[in-house]
Amino acid sequence: MHPDRLIRANHLLPPLPALFCGVDEAGRGPLAGPVVAAAVILDPQRPPEGLRDSKKLSAPQREHIALRIRAQALAWSIGQAEAEEIDQLNILQATLLAMKRALQGLSHPLVPLCVDGLYCPAWPTERMAIVQGDARVPAISAASILAKTERDRQLQLLAQTYPQYQFERHKGYPTALHLSLLQQHGPCAAHRRSFGPVAACLHSPGP
Question: Does one domain contain both 178 and 131?
Fold first, then answer.
């Protein structure tokens, strides 16, 4: 899948349309849980304050700004792909699927896309992939914040179903704590079995 246009991190941004959709994801790297994508069309006359790359915000800051985005954006939507789909498709294709699902939920679907990263989902409008777009384009920053806050919420819920993995602490990422608990308990239904550390537990004799 190739975007109509790819803007590298060291390239100047071209003029952007007056109305477009920012798209980003959260959760490509974890060993468990869904990959979540968000699509946001900001109101040019009413942009939320405080937009920036979600990774540069604390969790309370993200939650606060996410409320502004939902209240002030012209349209927003969230989509996701589950662990089983990630295993079936691979993480890149599952991420593009999550993005497409987010776009399908928009009330203003047929506007140009600006997507964070190197790849765009298939979509019947002009598409632009922007490397480090979450730090360069406010609509992508907004999408990154919505995707991150939604995924964190889901991992908090997952922690209630599988308390032995402490998902509320590491959000499924391969931290030392998560790897230790994975080795101790083996994978659960939310783990991505195609990812190396999970696959290794499946094929090991266990503790």
Answer: no
